[in-house]
Here is the input.
Amino acid sequence: MNKAVYPGSFDPTTNGHLDIIKRAASFVDELVVGVLENPSKNPLFSTDERVEHIKMLTKDLNNVSVLPFFGLLSDFVKSVDAKMVIRGLRTVTDFEYEIQMALTNRSLNENLETLFIPTSAKFLYLSSSIVKEIAMFGGDISGMVPEILKGIIIDKFRK
Ligand code: ADP
Here is the structure.
């Protein structure tokens, strides 16, 4: 069985992330979205909230599951019995970081392959940080994040 992990911070999930999730889910048997609990980052949304968001957004995709993880990605991939990691690629800057991560993960687990999916052109400049910056100053994030997350993000900044 072809089982893959799509890891990330997803703080918050953007339409760019959702596009990668849907495209990956269309060709793997099972996709586990791994939500990273990173103690060195100060996320806008807690790990539980980020997991809930993705569960809500993928409820109609029956081969997608969502789990939090902490620590090494290669360990998480092993723990869910997957052999493939999916990552989205936007720019050359992404590539430099991603190739380093892919090679590092492979050196930790030689059975692990990383598959890069190029972003859809309309999401090339879209990132969670851009969404947060715009939302923080009351800008319009329509089209950048799924409609059901829009209000949740705006409310978070109001608090
Ligand atoms: P991380 O902190 O691991 O980079 P992110 O949540 O920022 O987590 O991103 C998770 C994955 O989604 C990464 O592979 C990233 O390159 C990809 N990604 C982020 N934004 C986009 C986008 N707009 N289009 C395609 N892939 C994206």
